[in-house]
Amino acid sequence: MNPALEPWKDFNVAVAGASAALAGLLIVAMSVNVDAILAAPAVASRAGSAIGSLTLAVTAACLPLIPDQSVVVLGAEILVGGVICLFLALLAARQIYSSRTASPDPSLPPPPSHQQLSAKVAMNLAAPALFTVGGAILLADNASGLNWVAAGSIVSIIAGVVFAWIALVEIRR
Q1: Domain ranges of the chain
Q2: CA–CA separation, 162 vs 6, rounded Å?
């Protein structure tokens, strides 16, 4: 194992397991309420973004465990994954903002405020942005990018738990 990656071994093993388990929970949560999720394009886009970020967290935790993985190659791999997930998050952001319409039915809740929409978008963009920055730093052969990747992994887990709650409970309100 690359000496720069060795201190991260236990962290990566833990993140890989936790993220994979959460991704599975998220898929089960979505399957329970798939009709309601598909009926709301913004929620479906957020689901794709959440699964993408968790998949990247698993991948970014497994890649450093490959024997003789170089920091530069790891950076390129994570950067590519980060850019793909950032694209998914931007698609979700577009859906979130375009879905903000007032309902003609007064019994339905009002549309979310700009601050609520911004919080949803920020939650989707944060992890992929952290992974992308971390990948770029690693690509420059600087192992401090692992700190950014770790932050991306933690944010992915937090955002994944929040979206699992949305997919299981909030979608039914």
Answers
A1: 6-99+114-172
A2: 31
